[in-house]
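Student: I would love a firmer grasp of how sequence relates to backbone shape in proteins. I am handing you a single protein, as its sequence and its fold in token form. I am told such tokens are a discrete way to write the fold. I hope you can help me see how the letters and the tokens relate. Take your time, and here it is.
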Amino acid sequence: MGNIVLVLGGARSGKSGFAQSLISDQERHCLRTSVFYVATAGIEDDEMARRVARHRADRPDRWKTLEAQNDVVGTLEEIPSKSIVLLDCVTMMVTNLMFSRRTEWDGLSMEDERSVEQFVLGEVDRMLEVFRRRDISAVLVSNEVGQGLVPPYPLGRIFRDIAGWANQRIAKEADSVYLITAGIPQIIKEATS
């Protein structure tokens, strides 16, 4: 079964760089040879284009980049078994999934909110199942969004809640979990042999 590692941190905490170093170590020390970078961010403006360019420049050219803004699970199903995957990032995947279900968030009923939550978390469960079933070694990058201020608008609060629940599900299933603070990794769940 594939190994799953979750790398959590705040904005510019160093989580993507740390995740890339984990993948490079795996690439050097195991028989898995294909590395796939699964990108969940779309380029909507100049700022995002600069961020994406920076991420591309930071990773080796030999890694295959797969754009998965609209269908992460479908993209993962196409990756060969026994590959290595770096998925960056879960919180962007959550955002994309939320907006695939609806675009109006003010005045959302409890039933509609619950429907979006169940859809997103169902996709997270499907993603984790693909990693295990296809024996894919995965490092997942995600933002820790629950340690800041409470967002003052409904969409922000709903996003924060769903992203937090997604992180919890992934952390429970993960073999290892790291929290990155100011570039310093702390292991908060260690793989057992």
Observations:
- The longest strand covers residues 137-143.
- The chain has six helices and seven strands.
- The helical segments are 15-29, 46-58, 72-77, 90-101, 110-133, 154-173.
